[in-house]
Write a structure and sequence with these properties.
With 341 residues, this protein is an alpha/beta fold. The chain is built from 11 helices and 10 strands. It has a 5-stranded mixed beta sheet with strand order 3-2-1-4-5, sandwiched between helices.
Length: 341
């Protein structure tokens, strides 16, 4: 079975072909084309929705054509077209949804709606040892920091999440304040390693985003406010911030907060397998912290490759494969939504 996956939820136009190899085999990516808009949005310090939508329109036809060519398949070889329909930027999503609808119906192919968050989790199905439901999913991205109990390949139950900002936004916004280019996640990761190597400590205590009480929830707004207050105070005093030391402390605060919730998530869910995915799952400090927490809790951690942590068509096609297998096919009324299910 071959699935074409299309992703346009934010600032990357991506298409990929994913196939299931062998009886009792696994999913493999035959192609993965990503047209990034980072250089464009970097000028504004973040994603501009109207610009993102126009860029998707300009790129999508070529991206899909390249994905088919790289995979070495014809349209007639495909078994379905999967597309991200929610959540995301509505203008960006509409480009992918309308293209997929036209492509699917013109070629008499099943059209498959995919939840963007579920797709991030589905990137784990491309690993050497893919998870099997039931398992836990931790999605850490620019817009989400959430725990899910994956009951089946198509059934997700959110059991915890952020009540305001997400980890990715917390990295990007504060990274921009200390002079890092958008998106700041990778640069903050590297800078934190420099800070750890230097061994310099700041006289600063930041609040944890891990909420107290019997929950699996987070709140990153307080952390952002505390960090901004500290940085603004230094600026008012004409004192230059020790960027490596600050990055190390800020990163450790975010990562330890997320890792802190893992033992309770494993205990309350009763499962011993955790998938961590999403753009922030590429952060080396977070991977280490979550890995240590899982090991201590006696759980297996499954991490998609870094190349599949950001938005991509592979993850959409992977989730689409299981949606199609379950008979979840959409018709011409399919629409996009900015909100989650």
């Amino acid at each position: 079975m071959l699935i074409l996956g299309i992703e346009t939820s934010c600032d990357e136009t991506s298409a990929a072909v994913v196939g299931y190899v062998g009886e009792g085999g696994r999913l493999v990516a035959l192609s993965n084309i990503v047209a990034s808009q980072i250089d464009t949005h970097r000028l504004y310090g973040g994603v501009v929705p109207e610009i993102a939508g126009r860029a998707h329109i300009e790129a999508i036809s070529n991206v899909v054509e390249r994905a088919l060519s790289e995979a070495g398949v014809e349209i007639s070889d495909l078994d379905g077209v999967a597309v991200t329909t929610h959540p995301g930027l509505i203008g960006a999503l509409l480009v992918g949804v309308n293209f997929a609808k036209a492509f699917a119906f013109a070629n008499k192919l099943p059209l498959i709606s995919v939840n963007h968050i579920h797709a991030h989790t589905a990137a784990s199905y491309l690993t050497e040892t893919p998870p099997k439901p039931p398992y836990l999913s931790l999605v850490v991205s620019g817009g989400h920091t959430s725990f899910y109990l994956v009951k089946s390949y198509t059934e997700y139950e959110e059991i915890g999440g952020t009540r305001d900002d997400a980890a990715g936004e917390a990295f990007d916004k504060i990274g921009r304040v200390i002079g890092l280019q958008y998106p700041a996640g990778a640069a903050m990761d590297k800078l934190a390693h420099e800070g750890i190597a230097l061994g310099e400590k700041l006289d600063l205590k930041l609040p944890t985003p891990a909420l107290t009480g019997d929950n699996l929830d987070f709140s990153f707004s307080g952390l952002k406010t505390a960090a901004l207050n500290y940085l603004n105070k230094l600026a008012q005093q004409n004192v230059e911030v020790n960027r490596p030391a600050f990055a190390a402390l800020y990163t450790e605060t975010v990562c330890s907060a997320i890792a802190k919730k893992i033992p309770e998530a494993i205990k309350s869910s009763g499962v011993k397998q955790l998938v961590m995915s999403g753009g922030v799952a590429a952060n080396s400090h977070l991977r280490a912290a979550v890995g240590a927490a899982c090991q201590k809790a006696g759980a297996e951690l499954i991490l998609p490759p870094v190349s599949l942590c950001g938005d991509n068509g592979v993850m959409v096609a992977a989730q689409g494969y299981y949606e199609l297998k379950a008979g979840r096919v959409s018709d011409s009324n399919l629409n996009a939504s900015a909100e989650d299910d």
